[in-house]
């Protein structure tokens, strides 16, 4: 009896230390990745001032999301916080600064997904919502639906307490001039967020959609995407951004994904879900799966990119364009911001 007692006295401190070490190893491996669009983004066509503005905007978004994760907040909170910052910045084709439709309006789309529960929310074609990502989350959490569109979504927004603004809030002169150029070039075709480069003799084809994927301290993944769509789009066209499985997807068992690019090709390839399925069924890495789905988009004639973050905090940011605004922040607070392919 005494020998057992002495054995317990000896082992208890060791067991306590072992448990503490195990908790330290599994606790809080949080990561966050964002994108601000992909396209013909090259050093030759970028002024130092404009590059600094984009980097500052991406850094502000990353810092906002990191503060949420560092304080123990959820991946959903971090995703919404990051995207709100980008929606409020006219540099990007989401929220304020969204591109114009053929008839001179701003129509916004967004979606968000919870990797823990597979709950999701999306809005399409809204015109008066300052932060569409907030409305997408409200659809997920305060309704029994996944997607709402147009006037009905705006009526729901009013009931849900989402900030509503006058349509004039979204207008910027750069986007208006882009529409006028697109109308002059070819009034029958939609344009993918054209940003004219003075003296370059062509348009810089850029997808300004914004997105975020996050892994929180509890090990939960989330993804979100927001966009103004295509310059000169007609007939209520909707792209991949609000389509769960195409432009946005999150599953704690695999990965969180947010896409940016030519939406029709992302919808046809069900890109975001396909990436997750490749990881689940083929057991390949997030990097390999990302490259595979972007190749599929390219093989069909589409272009763009995506950001992806797996359940272990491994990230991938593949794209088949000249550049993609992208950035990440890891648990230690290290921020990385990239723009060009090289």
UniProtKB/TrEMBL annotation:
Superkingdom classification of source: Bacteria
Keyword match Signal: yes
Site residues by UniProt (Cleavage): 208-209
CDD domains attached to this UniProt entry: Asparaginase_2
Signal peptide positions on this chain: 1-22
UniProt entry keywords in alphabetical sequence: Autocatalytic cleavage, Hydrolase, Protease, Signal
InterPro entries according to UniProt: Ntn_hydrolases_N, Peptidase_T2
One Pfam family matching this protein: Asparaginase_2
Keyword Protease: yes
Biological process terms in GO annotation: proteolysis
The protein's name: Isoaspartyl peptidase
Species this protein is from: Chitinophaga cymbidii
């Amino acid at each position: 009896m005494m020998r057992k007692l002495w054995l317990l006295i000896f082992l208890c401190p060791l067991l306590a230390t072992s448990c503490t070490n195990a908790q330290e190893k599994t606790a809080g491996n949080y990561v966050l990745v964002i994108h601000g669009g992909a396209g013909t983004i090259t050093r030759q066509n970028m002024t130092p001032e404009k590059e600094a503005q984009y980097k500052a905007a991406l850094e502000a978004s990353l810092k906002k999301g990191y503060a949420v994760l560092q304080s123990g907040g959820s991946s959903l909170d971090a995703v919404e916080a990051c995207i709100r910052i980008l929606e409020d910045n006219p540099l990007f084709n989401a929220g304020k600064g969204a591109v114009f439709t053929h008839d001179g309006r701003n129509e916004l789309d967004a979606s968000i997904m919870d990797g823990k529960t597979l709950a999701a929310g999306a809005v399409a074609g809204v015109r008066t919502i300052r932060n569409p990502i907030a409305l997408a989350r409200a659809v997920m959490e305060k309704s029994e639906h996944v997607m709402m569109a147009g006037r009905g979504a705006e009526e729901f927004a009013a009931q849900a307490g989402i900030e509503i603004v006058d349509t004039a809030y979204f207008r910027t002169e750069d986007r208006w001039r882009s529409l006028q150029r697109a109308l002059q070039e070819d009034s029958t075709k939609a344009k993918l967020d054209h940003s004219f480069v003075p003296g370059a003799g062509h348009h810089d084809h850029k997808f300004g959609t914004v997105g975020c994927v996050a892994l929180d301290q509890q090990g939960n993944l989330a993804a979100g995407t927001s966009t103004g769509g295509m310059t000169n789009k007609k007939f209520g066209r909707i792209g991949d951004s609000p389509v769960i499985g195409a432009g946005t997807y999150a599953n704690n068992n695999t990965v969180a994904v947010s896409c940016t690019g030519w939406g029709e090709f992302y919808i046809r390839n069900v890109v975001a879900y396909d990436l997750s399925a490749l990881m689940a069924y083929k057991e390949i890495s997030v990097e390999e799966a990302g490259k595979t789905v972007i190749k599929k988009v390219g093989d069909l004639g589409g272009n763009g990119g995506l950001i992806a973050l797996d359940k272990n905090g491994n990230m991938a940011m593949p794209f088949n364009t000249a550049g993609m605004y992208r950035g990440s922040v890891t648990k230690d607070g290290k921020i990385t911001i990239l723009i060009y392919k090289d």
